[in-house]
Write a structure and sequence with these properties.
The chain is mainly α and about 230 residues long. The chain contains nine helices and no strands. The chain has one domain (about 1-225).
Length: about 230
């Protein structure tokens, strides 16, 4: 009975990955939007600019989230098998794709903060109410990510094992169930927060890019004038 219960709990872990599907779709649409800018603006620059960085960042995020989605499902579908090549491959999620996803998400949060506190030359008065309306969504996204991060740290503090060792080290069904439940909570909160942050970029992608670009150039010009 305990074994069946653990299987049900584990199923909830990989079923929460459904929340990454809208993230993948929105990220893909953002990358398409950026490519459309390049066509319209006749973008032919070969030197490294913010345009390159912004484009490569979203392309990288798309592929990393897609790979993380596949690896996470591979691991959790085979988590209770003693040995499986798919389980070993799935471990790469926690070792590579998940940390990279977190780092990019932190960068996206910082970039959006810059956008909220600055304007660009093409931003209209009608754009400002929309920007202000996104602030609660931005704060909610950060809130869910922080709560998810805290739950992860609490779980690590209590059990002192990473996720991939825990199922082998924790022998009691109760501990395994608590650990798995904690991981479900971590998935729900972090994925929800990540989805909200990506949604913000999808809503006002071009204005965000313009604001970041002009803010960067203004800082460069100020630095040059001081010299």
């Amino acid at each position: 009975m305990n074994f069946k219960l653990l299987h049900i709990l584990n199923a909830n872990v990989y079923l929460t990955n459904i929340l990454t599907i809208p993230i993948i779709i929105l990220t893909y649409l953002i990358t398409r939007d950026i490519k459309e800018w390049k066509r319209k603006d006749k973008y032919n620059e070969t030197t490294w600019t913010l345009n390159h960085f912004y484009e490569y960042l979203w392309n990288a995020y798309f592929w990393i989230v897609l790979v993380a989605f596949i690896l996470s499902n591979l691991y959790h579908l085979n988590m209770f098998t003693k040995y499986s090549i798919w389980k070993q491959i799935g471990k790469l999620d926690g070792q590579v794709s998940a940390p990279l996803t977190f780092l990019i998400m932190v960068l996206l949060i910082i970039m959006y903060y810059v956008y909220l506190h600055n304007t660009n030359s093409k931003q209209t008065k009608e754009d400002e109410p929309l920007k202000q309306a996104t602030i609660p969504i931005y704060r909610l996204g950060i809130f869910f990510i922080v709560i998810g991060g805290i739950s992860y740290l609490v779980k690590k503090t209590i059990y002192k094992y990473n996720y991939y060792d825990a199922m082998n080290v924790l022998n009691k069904a109760k501990d395994q169930a608590l650990w798995t439940s904690g991981h479900i909570f971590f998935h729900y909160t972090c994925y929800t927060g990540g989805l909200l942050i990506v949604l913000l970029y999808y809503i006002d992608n071009k204005n965000i890019y313009r604001t970041l670009k002009e803010n960067m150039y203004s800082h460069k010009s100020n630095a040059s004038s001081k010299e």
